[in-house]
Specification:
It is found in: Cell membrane. The protein is mostly helical. The chain is built from 15 helices and no strands. It is 74% helix and 0% strand.
């Protein structure tokens, strides 16, 4: 399976932005759960913890397309460095307010700043790959598959690390690691100017946003629902583990969810597909919904870990094909913003999922709250199938034609 990945990193500068991009992306899987663990320890309420985490996610979701547009216009380095420094300051402020026992409303206020200054680094890395692999769809597929694997490595390691730090060392430890990795990784990434995509000259493309493209809008709705699944499962799983006397295993359970996606991502990226991007996407989303169904029936921590592992197998194919579809639909001069809309949609979904998951967990218990995640997964599947025609790319074959994979 490693064959297609060989030679991907031979070009000058590629290894540098891949490594720094990995370090800078570690917070994306640690920030939410670290906030939940800290705020729930301070307030004793998963509802409050979920609401603060949701505030962070909403602020990120709103700001991601804006920062993406700025990057397209002025370049990654000029935008990422000041935003990242502000993010580090906001995280420091959140921890200080928590330590000082400040009123709960101040945690929401600083949470807005934390989210607004968070960087959609995955979009920035993929924009570099799109520039590097321009004109070579096979190389771009492999590169996007590799990035999906990196995302899942982050989601395997991040929750387990955050949970271990918060439960074994200090409830603040996870956010300290988030701060260090975000600042060091992102600034190191931004300083590698030789591999960043060229900026978009003023007036070179239409001023319209990529979200006005019907296919991008449909993908955004699907990823909104997917984000709600991720956000609710993150919070509910922490509560599920605690209710079963195994709170320290919550990170391992979430790592299992991402681990299934990691394995499928490696396999998916190693294949040369004849089936169209659209077909791959609209088949993967319903399979994900089917994989989620058993979670509402499980009452054991080990069994839940296995179920989450199996359910995760469809995540990477959805992400890989989703980003690839955006790359084909959006003009080059708006590519970073276009990809950021995927992050925005996931961010809004995570926010809604964290809030709803927290409320439902407090009201009905973790096992029943998992039903919300299932409903969101089904909504994603129905939306992708109903709007499949909007995802057709002119040069791709029709679904009516026979399609096989090698």
């Amino acid at each position: 399976m490693v064959g297609p990945y060989r030679g991907l990193f031979n070009a000058p500068g590629v290894k540098g932005f891949v490594i720094s991009g990995f370090v800078g992306r570690l917070p994306m899987s640690m920030l939410g759960i670290s906030v939940i663990l800290l705020i729930s320890a301070i307030t004793g309420s998963y509802g409050t913890a979920g609401a603060v985490a949701a505030t962070v996610s909403v602020a990120f979701a709103i700001s991601a397309p804006l920062s993406g547009r700025l990057v397209d216009r002025f370049g990654q380095a000029r935008v990422l460095i000041p935003i990242t420094l502000a993010h580090g300051g906001a995280l420091t402020g959140l921890m200080l307010l928590a330590e000082l026992g400040a009123p709960v409303w101040t945690l929401f206020a600083i949470g807005i700043l934390v989210g607004a200054t968070a960087v959609s680094l995955g979009s920035m890395v993929r924009a570099r790959w799109a520039h590097f692999a321009a004109g070579d769809p096979t190389k771009l597929h492999t590169a996007f598959s590799f990035e999906s694997v990196i995302d899942e490595v982050v989601f395997v390691a991040g929750p387990a690390l955050a949970t271990a730090l918060a439960t074994q060392i200090s409830e603040y430890a996870g956010l300290v690691v988030v701060l260090l990795s975000a600042v060091i990784g992102t600034i190191t990434f931004a300083l590698q100017r030789g591999t960043q995509p060229p900026v978009r000259p003023k007036g070179s493309v239409s001023g319209r946003s990529p979200i006005t493209i019907p296919g991008v809008a449909l993908l955004s709705i699907v990823f909104l629902a997917m984000g709600a699944v991720f956000g609710s499962i993150d919070l509910i799983t922490v509560a599920f583990a605690e209710q079963h006397g195994s709170k320290g295993h919550a990170g391992t359970m979430l790592a299992a969810f991402a681990g299934g996606s990691l394995i499928s991502g490696i396999w998916f990226g190693s294949r040369q597909w004849k089936i169209s991007l659209r077909s791959r996407f609209i088949r993967a989303v319903p399979i994900f919904a089917l994989g989620i169904m058993p979670i509402v029936f499980v009452t054991s921590v080990p069994v839940m870990a296995v179920v989450l592992f199996i359910a995760g197998f469809s995540i990477s194919p959805i992400l890989i094909t989703g980003y690839a579809l955006v790359e084909r639909m959006v003009p080059n001069g708006l590519l970073t913003e276009g990809m950021a809309w995927i992050s925005t949609s996931v961010g809004f979904g995570v926010a809604a999922g964290a809030w709803a998951g927290g409320r439902l967990t407090d009201m009905y218990g973790a096992s029943n709250a998992y039903g919300f995640a299932l409903v969101c997964a089904l909504l994603a599947a129905v939306t992708s199938l109903a709007g499949a025609a909007l995802l057709r790319i002119p040069e791709e074959p029709s679904l009516a034609a026979p399609e096989v994979s090698t």
